[in-house]
């Protein structure tokens, strides 16, 4: 696991400056504390920081081909590299290392840009072809590994794994992208290709970028489809095949030259991964979980139950509320872009604790999006029935009653879920789903933002990612709920969940791997009938069938919980001075983005228990403390 950087000066007589490359790489030393490496030739610079996982002794980067005309810096893991290496040797290629990175170089010689079709893994890489004066950069299919880039007109093309490294280049200006800000307020994250810095872009998942002759173009090389012909398969066959494919995906991800474990929350996804790891591993598997004092947020009893059933070497650490609050001032260090997902804190705490024992850990990310695990999918079915009720009953009786429910600060409390439900129930499907999952609605943004900010971009631009999912025209052959699953995989999973996991784990120098994101497994899951994934309101039905007998019944029956934090409570108590300082009238006036009166009203209503504004306030707070926005 690594972090990569690089740039190409567009003026040929302007050599690449080593101090700039080294400064960029120094900003991502947490991604690779073990080693660094650079390539400088003429106007081109490549650099990397390495966390040594495979081929520790000879896997130093950059890596080149035999005649040193092709050079690569690479972040990630290629799980099928040994099979690829054997095939390439059979085709006449010579290897100097046993690393997965060198495989990519020879794949490029053999297949050109189509090399990505042969990779099973998580990756972001930059490959420089000296002869053709051509740069190829690519990102894995689901976006597990990040990659930012910018073209400064007439001067340089620049890229890096993280935004904080890219802005170290003196040509990159730190101007806030106001369209990205509005998207962030809606989604709680910035969707690619946008970034929070004007003129800087994120390469989309499953895309490659070619830069040559001073210009760049991107191409999509893979996508998953729900509208392909469904598998004709019985429930028993589907459960057995899902078990086999997941087991294979886990087995591939157990390859490591350093200690490895499993992040065990006690939910069915991570528990299934742990069970498969126990089947494949030669010795006892190490599992890791964290516990919290706040009972409504604590899942540790389920993790212990699974660990006992599987016989793992289980490690658990209990955190107090004070421990968690102490992380809040560290968040700007963890993030190079704002993220409104409060589960960043427990994800980082778990990563930091796990890193004390191992260097690599497997997790359960991806199961919810492809096997209908989120309660929002069932809520869409309820919304269909709700919209059939007479308007006077919905608007005149039910909704006023729900709005009067007492405010609770507990995790996923009834009033929180009921109020989120009615906020989106009467909207088109994609917009409804975004309201349930996100923070600020269009109406709330119009109250929050100053007029001059609102006038910069229309609401259609802000919500362009949602609009296609409002209509069945996008995917006429699939169910509405599968459309929402597709939306979650494209947006929430790739742009929020995987962003969070990457930054939290890399801040602790821990590599995480997600077996559910194996692209061959995804292609199988998307072909299964919806009824095998969502049975009534019961999500992940087929996975529960596949794991019956291997995991405790209590784990198979338990509802989806999520990795939450008592943010609503904190904002009223311990964090109140910190929040009030971040949203001081003087600071907001100086920024010139938000309406101070509306923000103050938001804070007052939350503190007085009139309303639960946890998502809105936390999303705003993460933007206000974002370090790259302070200059």
Structural features, described:
The protein is of the alpha+beta class and 631 residues long. The protein folds into three domains: 2-176 and 190-220, Aminohydrolase, N-terminal nucleophile (Ntn) domain (Glutamine Phosphoribosylpyrophosphate, subunit 1, domain 1, 4-Layer Sandwich); 235-372 and 515-557, HUPs (Rossmann fold, 3-Layer(aba) Sandwich), CATH 3.40.50.620; 566-631, no CATH class. It has 30 helices and 17 strands. The strands form three sheets. It has a six-stranded antiparallel β-sheet. A six-stranded antiparallel β-sheet has the order 4-5-6-7-11-12. A five-stranded parallel β-sheet has the order 15-14-13-16-17, sandwiched between helices. Strand 4 and strand 5 form a beta hairpin. Helix 2 (81-90) packs across helix 3 (100-111), helix 11 (344-355) packs across helix 21 and helix 13 (375-386) packs antiparallel against helix 21. The chain starts with a strand and ends in a 7-residue tail after the last helix. 50% of the residues are buried. The mean pLDDT is 91.
Protein topology:
Blueprint: E1 2-9, H1 18-26, E2 35-41, E3 44-50, E4 63-64, E5 70-78, H2 81-90, H3 100-111, E6 121-129, E7 134-139, E8 148-152, E9 156-160, H4 163-166, H5 178-187, E10 201-202, E11 207-212, E12 215-220, H6 235-252, E13 260-263, H7 268-280, E14 286-292, H8 300-310, E15 313-319, H9 321-327, H10 331-334, H11 344-355, E16 360-362, H12 367-370, H13 375-386, H14 391-403, H15 414-424, H16 429-437, H17 442-448, H18 451-454, H19 459-462, H20 467-470, H21 480-507, E17 511-513, H22 519-527, H23 530-533, H24 541-546, H25 553-557, H26 567-572, H27 576-582, H28 585-591, H29 596-607, H30 614-624
Parallel strand pairs: 13-14, 13-16, 14-15, 16-17
Antiparallel strand pairs: 1-3, 1-9, 2-3, 4-5, 5-6, 6-7, 7-11, 8-9, 8-10, 11-12
Helix pairs in contact: 2-3, 6-7, 6-22, 7-8, 11-21, 13-21, 15-16
């Amino acid at each position: 696991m690594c972090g990569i950087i690089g740039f190409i000066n567009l003026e040929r007589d302007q050599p690449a400056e080593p101090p700039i490359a080294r400064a960029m790489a120094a900003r991502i030393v947490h991604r690779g504390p073990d080693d660094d490496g650079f390539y400088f030739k003429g106007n081109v610079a490549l650099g990397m920081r390495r966390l040594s996982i495979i081929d520790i002794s000879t896997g130093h980067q950059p890596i080149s081909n035999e005649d040193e005309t092709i050079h690569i810096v690479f972040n990630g893991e290629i799980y099928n590299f040994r099979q690829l290496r054997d095939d390439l040797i059979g085709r006449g290629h010579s290897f100097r290392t046993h690393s997965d990175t060198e495989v990519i170089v020879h794949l490029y010689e053999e297949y050109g840009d189509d090399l990505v079709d042969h990779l099973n893994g998580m990756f972001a890489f930059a490959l420089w072809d000296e002869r053709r004066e051509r740069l190829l950069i690519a990102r894995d299919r689901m976006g597990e590994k990040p990659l930012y880039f910018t073209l400064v007109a007439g001067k340089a093309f620049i890229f890096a794994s993280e935004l904080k490294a890219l802005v170290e280049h003196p040509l990159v200006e730190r101007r806030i992208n106001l369209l990205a800000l509005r998207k962030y307020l809606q989604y709680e994250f910035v969707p690619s290709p946008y970034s929070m810095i004007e003129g800087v872009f994120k390469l989309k998942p499953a895309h490659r970028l070619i830069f040559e002759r001073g210009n760049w173009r991107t191409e999509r090389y893979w996508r998953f489809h729900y509208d392909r012909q469904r598998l004709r398969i019985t429930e028993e066959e589907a459960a057995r095949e899902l078990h086999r494919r997941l087991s294979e995906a886990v087995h591939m991800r157990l390859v490591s030259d350093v200690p490895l474990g499993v992040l065990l929350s006690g939910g069915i996804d991570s528990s299934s991964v742990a069970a498969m790891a126990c089947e494949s591993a030669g010795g006892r598997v190490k599992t890791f979980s964290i516990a919290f004092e706040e009972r409504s947020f604590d899942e540790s009893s389920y993790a212990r139950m699974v660990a006992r059933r599987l016989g793992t070497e289980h490690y658990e650490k209990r955190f107090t509320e004070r421990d968690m609050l102490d992380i809040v001032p560290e968040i700007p260090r963890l993030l190079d872009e704002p993220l409104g997902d409060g589960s960043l804190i427990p994800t980082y705490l778990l990563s930091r604790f796990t890193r004390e024992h191992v260097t690599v850990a497997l997790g359960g990310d991806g199961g919810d999006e492809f096997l209908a695990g989120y309660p929002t999918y069932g809520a869409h079915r309820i919304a269909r029935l709700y919209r059939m009720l007479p308007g006077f009953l919905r608007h005149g009786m039910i909704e006023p009653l729900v709005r009067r429910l007492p405010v609770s600060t507990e995790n996923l409390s009834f009033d929180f879920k009921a109020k989120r439900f009615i906020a989106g129930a009467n909207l088109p499907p994609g917009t409804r789903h975004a309201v349930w999952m996100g923070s600020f609605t269009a109406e709330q943004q119009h109250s929050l933002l100053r007029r001059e900010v609102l006038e910069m971009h229309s609401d259609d631009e802000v919500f362009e990612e949602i609009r296609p999912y409002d209509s069945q025209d996008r995917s006429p052959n699939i169910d509405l709920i599968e459309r929402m699953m597709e939306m979650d995989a494209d947006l929430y999973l790739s742009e929020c969940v995987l962003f969070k996991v990457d930054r939290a784990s890399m801040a602790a120098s821990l590599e995480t791997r997600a077996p559910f994101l194996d692209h061959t497994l995804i292609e199988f899951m998307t072909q299964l009938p919806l009824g095998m994934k969502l049975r009534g309101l019961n999500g992940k039905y087929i996975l529960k069938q596949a794991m019956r007998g291997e995991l405790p019944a209590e784990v198979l029956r338990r509802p989806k919980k999520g990795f939450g934090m008592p943010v609503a409570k904190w904002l009223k108590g311990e964090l109140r001075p910190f929040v009030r300082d971040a949203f001081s009238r003087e600071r907001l006036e100086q920024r010139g983005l938000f309406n101070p009166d509306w923000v103050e009203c938001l804070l007052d209503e939350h503190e007085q228990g009139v309303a639960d504004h946890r998502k809105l306030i936390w999303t705003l707070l993460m933007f206000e403390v974002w370090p790259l926005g302070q200059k």
